[in-house]
Amino acid sequence: MRPLDWIVMFGWLAFIVSIGLWRGRGSGTTRKYMLAGKTMPWYAMGLSIIATQASAITFISTTGQAYVDGMRFVQFYFGLPIAMVILSATAVPIFHRADVYTAYEYLEKRFDAKTRSLVSAIFLIQRGLAAGLALYAPAVALSVILGWPDRVTTVIMGVLVMVYTSWGGIKAVTWADVYQMGLITAALVLAFGMAVYLLPHGVSFGDALSLAGVMGRLDAVTTKFDLNDRYNIWSGLIGGAFLALAYFGCDQSQVQRYLTGRSIAQSRLSLLFTAVAKIPMQFFILFIGAMVFVFFVFERPPLLFHPVEQANIASRAGYAQVEQSYDAAFARRRDAAEAYLAARHNGAETGPAANRYRNAQHDLDVAHAAGERLVSRDFNDTNFIFLSFVTRYLPAGVVGLIIAVIFSAAMSSTSGEINSLATVSVIDIYRRHFRPDASDRHYVMASRVATILWGCFAVGFANFGRDFGALIEAVNMVGSLFYGGLLGVFVLAFFCKRVGANGAFYGVLAGEAAIFAANRLTHIGFLWYNVIGCVVVVAVGVVVSMWNRPASMT
Amino acid sequence: MPDERPPFLGTWPRVYAAVLAYVAVLIFLFWLFARAFTG
Lengths: 554, 39
Known about the structure:
The complex is a heterodimer.
Chain A: H1 3-23, H2 30-35, H3 42-53, H4 56-69, H5 80-89, H6 91-98, H7 103-110, H8 113-145, H9 150-197, H10 205-214, H11 233-250, H12 252-259, H13 264-298, H14 307-313, H15 319-346, H16 351-374, H17 385-393, H18 398-434, H19 440-462, H20 471-495, H21 501-521, H22 527-547
Chain B: H1 12-37
């Protein structure tokens, strides 16, 4: 980091906190603090929804996934637009007309208090854990770049977010997200431009696409059905749709965003805007990872992208031999790539050179895996690939901008999460069970205190982030353990009019048991947990209600 | 709360259909894109 990078990074952080404080002024009632007085336009809600979902993990880990595994991860988002259409037609008008602060408040209107409390508790556990992981990602970034301890970074991040979120509530969160999405978009375009610009002289953009494509890095669609494969078109369309239905329809961090709309139409448009924008955005982020891969075909990548672990293993027994193998494999891959491009330019047969190129990549992967094994702890280098590229090859100012983006992404996710956690804590727990008759001002103050407490919890939990593997999968995994149950109970609420409170309550318990059993006892891809959980909740809910039908229906 | 008409395409079902058609086209384009450069 050079002086200009520091100026850009801290300048942006100061700007975002100022925007949050300024835009969040006048949030003195619960309706304004939690629902922005229902005044938000569709574009602000839409950008805020995308910003909340696109955490720092998205930039750090997704680009790395494209580097090592290609663009298959984009399939994860194929079901999202389907979910948005379903939610626009069902959940949005139902929640708006119920005039609720939280999605779980609606469950008491439809079922009973125990179902509302159970689902609120599931949300608080799941989203609380996710908030900690979302904060940990930029700590990873800065520990690599600055040599700061993770703990210092998470505290700084957490305090900044707590300042403007506790002051301005949902209005501060939403408007800060709008500006953060602007920066994120600009930085993504810049990072992509730099990755292409830094390709060696004589290697065109078309050549780069060929080199990435031959190695399978541009494969975005896998049509083979395999329950154990995490990312294929079927898991994306079906499992991804269920996950998105649960996330955007039952997770207060998202529901609260479109509850702030000034009309049903504005809320619907915000979800449909997300449906249209999200897949191209993810594709573009993955595409940056593919271009970084091509860049490193010609520029020798470090044996390990994590600079601290790279330095640590240099003194280990066997390192010299591993590095020698790595150097030889890199030289073979570069030579094969040049031969492949020469054949391509001359219109000659490219098959033999392509095979040499693939074989050399295999050797390079083997050497890299041997390097990873030299690290004494469980270690995943994927999360450090993009950061290594940014800090080693991008010019002053741009590095600061991209680090600011990683901060921004983490802050937008965390602010939305702790804001929704505070809202559920106050509305569904505190007001419902402990202080039902306090003044409106009291609940605003309670929300501010709850925001700070959840922020502190997220900072504390973030310190356990290093125990997880690829971060993005960890976050999605945490969600998938709980979302199937949440989705199931809302399906019962919206579509199964004859199912009563007991059916919903025991259905959720059974659904969660089924998900945890699938997680512990099978190798089924985690995207399918949402389907399993939802189906079990609905099935058990219907059966229990038939068996134990309410008096009014018998 | 009243339900307003969408700002384009006249009805909400038409807007939903347009979004789903867009996704289908997008997936097809991704598939074509990967095939074009697989080599």
